[in-house]
Amino acid sequence: MRTISLALLTTLIFITTANAQAPYDRALGVKFPGGLSLTYKKFISNTHNLEAQFTAWHQGFRVAGLYEFNFYSFDKVPELSWFVGPGAHIGFWKHNDDSTKNYNSQADIGVDGIIGLDYKFKNAPINVSVDWEPAITLIGSAGFTPVFGGVAIRYTF
Hints:
Blueprint: H1 2-17, E1 26-32, E2 36-43, E3 48-57, E4 60-71, E5 80-97, E6 102-120, E7 126-132, E8 135-139, E9 143-145, E10 149-156
Antiparallel strand pairs: 1-2, 1-10, 2-3, 3-4, 4-5, 5-6, 6-7, 6-8, 7-10, 8-9
């Protein structure tokens, strides 16, 4: 437990002392596969941003909110960063009961994590990212879902 606490403290110090300039302020676009998502990203500091995702998924939809920490570790490519962070989701969809061929409404609530790479084109208002967003559903169809994430293409402003 002490090792985990020390690792979390070290990470927190590194995150709060990182000194980099965010390459854009806001971005709006689409993300796929894992459903088709609308994604909005807003930087709240040079190294922290919030991301909201609305995903059409399983004859329903899923809304996720993420808090992301950005790291500008690629000196030779300043437009490239990597990010990681926690989040949460809520989703509503229809579940097919194979035995009766009936569709029942289902609601899921859970926690998400995200890790990925983010690139802002230098001379264009375009951002692309690739990420993995595993989720643990706590209420509803409880369990681990490793399939979310994908490629996002956004307009930056």
